[in-house]
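RECORD TYPE: inverse folding
INPUT: structure tokens
STRUCTURE:
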């Protein structure tokens, strides 16, 4: 892709955890690992592709929309990066707050939370709109996250906490550069004071992005490593450290599954079939009361009928796709290729497992719902 060519995502799209809402796209920052880089969407002026009113209409009309969907706003930019972005965010939050929709809203940022944005968040919270702020902070420096004011990012934690805004600490990506014990301690000592929990997401490599990531971690050049199929990639040091958290952090929750972090903060039960999985039992650092909530809700979940499944497939444009529905295991098997966004939507809406082969043109990275597994590597070379 040439430097002048920009690829734009749909305004409303389905990701593995949430609905992505992207009425403004393009970021003036230049984080070396950013998934927008090969789309020509870094070091550019953010561009509006839908007004706030148009965005709400597109959301409610989307085949992916459902009343329980979590909305992730501005994943193709940073909503706080520029004054125009912030003005659009404020207008969109006010638009959502004035609507009948009460979908939980997530805002992911590395930029400073300004007073006008904080006022908007708190007034829409007071009106009944659930809002969670993800602060993406992993201990990386300006040599990797170009253009980020990391001290301003750290100040966001007490600012939002004191205002009563729920914070999820987004601990991503994991690279050799931020996997030392000193860096891990520096991050945890700060975030555990203010965040409700952390999501440790590793490094994600979407199709054809290996060359972008290799300068950050030369080991990824190894052709024997199927980095694009991994749900996440981890230096062994940080992976092992996350499973031996010192006692001084108490019962602070750390999740490897974003859906579980959202369930914990929202006070809801697991709908992504994580409960009792190896990730649930051996990896997620989850409070006992949250596990009890998930266990209690399990027998109460409605089982979709074959007609429910067929109607949803039609809504997504798959009226004739061959499939098998097993209600006993809550597993839908698609006997053909299917876009990941459609698999994720079926899984989220019905709380089921969806198995299908991947479309070869799919640009989205693999994830837990797509069957990916973590890839743990020794970070012996920089």
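DESIGNED SEQUENCE:
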């Amino acid at each position: 892709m040439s430097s002048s060519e920009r690829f734009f995502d749909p305004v409303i799209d389905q990701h593995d955890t949430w609905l992505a809402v992207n009425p403004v796209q393009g970021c003036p920052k230049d984080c070396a690992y950013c998934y927008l880089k090969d789309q020509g969407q870094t070091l550019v002026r953010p561009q509006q592709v839908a007004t706030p009113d148009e965005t709400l209409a597109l959301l409610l009309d989307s085949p992916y929309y459902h009343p329980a969907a979590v909305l992730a706003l501005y994943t193709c930019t940073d909503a706080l990066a520029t004054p125009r972005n912030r003005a659009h965010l404020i207008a969109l939050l006010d638009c959502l707050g004035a609507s009948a929709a009460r979908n939980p809203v997530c805002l992911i940022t590395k930029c400073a939370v300004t007073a006008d944005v904080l006022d908007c968040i708190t007034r829409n919270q007071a009106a009944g709109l659930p809002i969670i702020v993800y602060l993406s902070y992993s201990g990386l420096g300006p040599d990797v996250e170009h253009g980020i004011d990391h001290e301003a990012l750290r100040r966001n934690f007490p600012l939002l906490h004191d205002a009563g805004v729920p914070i999820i600490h987004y601990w991503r990506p994991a690279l050799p550069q931020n996997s030392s014990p000193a860096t891990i301690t520096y991050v945890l000592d700060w975030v555990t004071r203010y965040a409700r929990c952390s999501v440790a997401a590793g490094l994600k490599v979407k199709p054809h992005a290996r060359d972008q990531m290799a300068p950050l971690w030369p080991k990824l050049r190894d052709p024997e490593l199927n980095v694009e199929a991994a749900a996440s990639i981890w230096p062994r040091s940080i992976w092992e450290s996350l499973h031996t958290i010192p006692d001084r952090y108490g019962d602070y929750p750390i999740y490897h599954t974003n859906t579980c972090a959202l369930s914990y903060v929202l006070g809801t039960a697991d709908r992504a079939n994580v409960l009792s999985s190896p990730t649930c039992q051996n990896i997620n650092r989850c409070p006992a009361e949250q596990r009890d909530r998930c266990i209690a809700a399990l027998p109460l979940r409605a089982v979709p009928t074959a007609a429910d499944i067929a109607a949803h497939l039609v809504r997504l444009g798959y009226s004739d796709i061959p499939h098998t529905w097993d209600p006993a295991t809550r597993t839908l098997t698609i006997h053909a290729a299917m876009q990941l966004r459609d698999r994720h939507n079926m899984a989220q809406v019905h709380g089921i497992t969806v198995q299908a082969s991947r479309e070869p043109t799919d640009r989205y990275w693999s994830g837990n719902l797509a069957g990916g597994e973590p890839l743990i590597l020794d970070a012996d070379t920089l």
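NOTES: The chain has two domains: 12-297, 306-374.
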